[in-house]
Amino acid sequence: LTAMGDPSMDPTMSAADSTAQQDSLFSMMDVFLISLITGLFTYWFFFRKKKEEVPDLPKMQSVVAPVRDSSFIEKMKKTGRNIVVFYGSQTGTAEEFANRLSKDAHRYGLRGMAADPEEYDLSDLSRLSEIDKSLAVFCMATYGEGDPTDNAQDFYDWLQEADADLSGLRFAVFGLGNKTYEHFNAMGKYVDKRLEELGAQRIFELGLGDDDGNLEEDFITWREQFWPAVCEHFGVEATGEESSIRQYELVVHTDVNMNKVYTGEMGRLKSYENQKPPFDAKNPFLAQVTENRKLNEGGERHLMHLELDISNSKIRYESGDHVAVYPANDSSLVNQIGEILGTDLDTIMSLNNLDEESNKKHPFPCPTSYRTALTYYLDITNPPRTNVLYELAQYATDSGEQERLRKMASSAAEGKALYLSWVVEARRNILAILQDMPSLRPPIDHLCELLPRLQARYYSIASSSKVHPNSIHICAVTVEYETKTGRLNKGVATNWLKSKVPEQNGSSSLVPMYVRKSQFRLPFKPSTPVIMIGPGTGIAPFIGFIQERAWLKQQGKEVGETVLYYGCRREHEDYLYREELARFQKEGVLTQLNVAFSRDQAEKVYVQHLLKKNKENVWKLVNEGMAHIYVCGDARNMARDVQNTFYEIVSEFGNMSQPQAVDYVKKLMTKGRYSLDVWS
User: Fold this and answer.
1) Which of 632, 634, 651, 675 is catalytic?
2) How far apart are CA 397 and CA 413, in angstroms?
3) CA dist 8 to 11, 12, 13, 18, Å?
4) Catalytic one of 330, 598, 663, 679
5) Which CATH number is associated with domain 328-454?
6) Known catalytic residue: 677?
7) Residue 566: Cβ within 10 Å count
């Protein structure tokens, strides 16, 4: 268009030529205008489309979890802390010990904080020396067969792979384990050894707590020697007696929207009303109970088989996995605590952390009622630990009762003995202590602050997902016993499960649950023989194993020998899954069924006796058939006796000495050919 006014145009051009050029120019202008309009429209179209997409971005961002400040160093600097106590905890005890140690620090002019390793970047340990008088303490529980707890898995992985220089780090480790297990305190031992290998300085010896003995006493004994070592290392002194310091403050809600109040949810508010996968410890699935039947024909005990419906949950499981169940405390125990303390249990309250920088804002989901807290969130049936007694002592108006509580909480030999006999061995829970000490009437909010969290209970899944993809089966025995004080104590979870009947009158029984993966797995090749040893409810995972082997056989797969060693008290009393096992044997899936009835004759017969009886066949399966061995049930006696029997068989038929036989079995374990799923 600018060419029309170009001064270089020839002035002698004829009118016809001029007219022709104008026609040509107008046609060019038309083309250009059309092109321009088309271009503008195209640009506008795409621009408009982008504008429409913009509002979606905030929605996408809103579902992403907030970025956590993962530097515990920066947090310690900001809040003036110099001691960090990390905990690897599966049932809450290691976390409890970590909290106690972090609270202790103030007595020595130091400031501590308990920390979940899952929430922080542990590679920052190399920077801890930037803080004066700094120390890292690790309270590490061992889970299963020498495994780290769920929240310490990342830390464990980092330690294995790390090539960090931790030469400026000062540390101490207290391990929580159980001597009845093969890999006693494996996690505590590993962390202690590995930190030293990376150059860190141990300022106090490794503590090894044994839950099969008296874990509380082990911890107190270690702790009372640990702090003097810290004082000597840093040149500090205790500033005074241990004092009671509240960690949370009570806020009572008189005018609250009930839609904002927790009623038993583990994580997200209203998560039980609006269920969203994935389901885990913080977001359990509410499974409907579709079957609950008694398995035993007689006897005093109640053995039961439950089926949980997991349809539409997207939960997947494998044979050998565990199902975790969140139980509820007996309402009569909750009511009695409320009555003794003269409390309106339906009061809505919050316990807010006085440390505003803490990641843990409340000891349990808040706001909630005292009734909900005592029913779903707090452990009111286990004997309380010594720190709880110490904190409660101040509320006893009778000087004798106060002195007794303080003595039991002390580290003196007499105090430890009194705690062991009066609390632990007598199995006195908090209600029993309140009943037996009439002057002890603490504020209910402080009691709720002190009591540990009610933990999920784990059960070996008694079904195969190949056969029951939408259902998880549980085999359990109700726990009920009389204490030395004449009280009847009942197991929280088993008695709660016993009451969960399938749908009646339109109302269904729901169980909050999730699945925890296990290493207890059938061999990769179905043709590999298996030897399963599981007396009592230890048969649970093997019902799933046998179901799966039957399914594999139906699919045309070659299935190896499937051998079961099962035991119970009496054939006509507590022979679990009798009909199912007979059917599997008839179908040829269960190639050997060996059952020990311990009380049907004068001499007691157990599974290990049947193993000895069939020792030649057992050795042939293990040595020539490359069989996989599985043991499930009691860790304290049965699992140990079975293992000793295998030592004997290997020694006899493998022509090995006792140490060689032990080494042979240990190698089977290392190769995944000898697996344990045991409890004590």
Assistant:
1) 632
2) 25
3) 9, 12, 12, 15
4) 679
5) 1.20.990.10
6) yes
7) 24
Dist CA 543 CA 551 (whole Å): 12
Q: Is the pLDDT of residue 10 over 80?
A: no
Taking only the tens place, the pLDDT of each residue in 422-454 is 999 999 999 999 999 999 999 999 999 999 999
Rounded CA Rg of the chain: 33
Order of strands, sheet of 348-353, starting from the edge strand that comes earlier in the sequence:
248-252, 348-353, 368-369
Its pTM stands at: 0.86
Helix (H, G, I), strand (E, B) or coil at 463: coil
pLDDT of residue 50: 38
| CATH code, residues 530-678 | 3.40.50.80
CATH class of 72-234: alpha beta
Instruction: List, as one string, the DSSP characters of 71-115.
Output: -HHHHHHHHT--EEEEEE-SSSHHHHHHHHHHHHGGGGT--EEEE
Active site residue 44: no
Report the C-alpha gap between 535 and 642 in whole angstroms. Answer: 11
The continuous run of DSSP H or E covering 366 comes out as none
Residue 664 CB coordination number (10 Å):
18
Q: What number does CATH give the domain 276-327+456-518?
A: 2.40.30.10
- Helix runs in 126-214, H state only: 153-161, 186-197
pLDDT at 37: 59
Question: Which token pair is 134?
Answer: 């700094």
- Please say if the pLDDT value at position 40 is more than 60: no
CA distance 575 to 571: 5
How do strand 471-477 and strand 480-482 relate by DSSP bridges? Answer: unpaired
Catalytic residue flag (residue 679): yes
Catalytic residue among 460, 463, 651, 675: 460
